[in-house]
Specification:
Number of strands: 7
Strand content: 25-35%
Number of helices: 4
Helix content: 25-40%
Oligomer: single chain
Strand order of the largest sheet: 2-1-5-6-7-4-3
Distance between the termini: 36 Å
Order of helices and strands: HEEEEHEEHHE
Shape: globular
Length: 138
């Protein structure tokens, strides 16, 4: 396994800044399309929060389980596979969502739209999942 790209402290600092800035990335991430995925709980009971790049389409949000620097699926994907009900913070809103992995031709279409992910997939030894986060009222 490779070294993770960001430390827990760096992620925590980013989350705090994201929330303080009204749900918009700041600093070196200003202008990026990022959301916060709340997908489970840490051992101490606090929410497990993951900042993720996303692509919006028809009111749904698509995220890629890239996990930069680590050759395994990210924890948030395991969380969503166990319970697809989650919460996202995006563009100043908090939304309840249901997660569903995208497979087959639909997954191929999502990769074709965003060539940078095709390059990341080519460098990985695992299939990088695409997950659709659809707002719900659960």
């Amino acid at each position: 396994m490779s070294k993770k790209m960001f430390s827990n402290q760096e992620i925590s600092d980013f989350v705090d800044e994201f929330r303080a800035n009204g749900g918009r990335p700041a600093g070196q991430y200003a202008g990026a399309t990022l959301l916060l995925l709340n997908s489970g709980q840490e051992a101490d009971g606090t929410p497990h929060v993951s900042p993720l790049n996303f692509y919006a389409d028809a009111g749904r949000y698509f995220v890629y389980a890239v996990n930069p620097g680590v050759d395994e699926n990210p924890r948030w994907l395991h969380d969503l596979r166990a319970d697809p009900q989650a919460t996202i913070e995006v563009e100043g809103q908090t939304l309840q969502v249901t997660a569903a992995e995208v497979h087959g031709p639909k997954r191929d279409e999502m990769y074709a739209r965003y060539p940078q992910f095709t390059e990341l997939q080519a460098a990985a030894t695992r299939l990088i999942p695409v997950v659709e986060l659809a707002p719900t009222g659960f």
